[in-house]
Amino acid sequence: MMLTDCFSFPQKGSPKRGRVKRAFSVHGGEVTADDLITRARTGLKPNGDMGPIPPLSSAFYNNGLLISTDQAIRDGGGLQNAIARQPGETVVRVEAQDVGDLGADLGYGYQRIGATGNKLINGTT
Q: Among 69, 70, 98, 107, which lies 20 to 30 A Cα-Cα from 62?
């Protein structure tokens, strides 16, 4: 994963702020390929929570890479770029355009396998 996925950073006042354990349980090094395939097919997250089927179900090779990538995004200006692109949002999506190439293979993932409630998106799976 060369940061083709995106990262979400809850901002001050967001009810999602402070959910560090979620990042590890959904995208950390302990997540298996079977977990990711299940999420790509059904929306069931590796931590047992149910959600929409994401466009990409992905995980880092290990927790150290998750931590260092998070820090690189913050220190390298990627988070600031995303905030500027999405003023007033409580959760900011950091995308590759905000960060650039980090120059490392960080993890792996699977594109959406299952259908979503959005018929337009279903045509792209």
A: 98
**Is residue 8 within a helix (H) or strand (E), and if so which, with residue range?**
strand 7-10
Length of the chain: 125
- C-alpha to C-alpha distance for 125 and 95, rounded to whole angstroms: 21
15 φ, ψ (degrees, to nearest 5): -65, -15
Name the residue ranges covered by the structural domains of the chain.
Answer: 20-71+105-125
Structure tokens at 122: 């279903």
Orientation of helix 78-85 relative to helix 63-75, angle to 10°:
60
DSSP annotation of 86: S
Q: How do residues 84-98 score in pLDDT, each as one tens digit?
A: 999 998 888 888 899
Predicted structure pTM score = 0.74
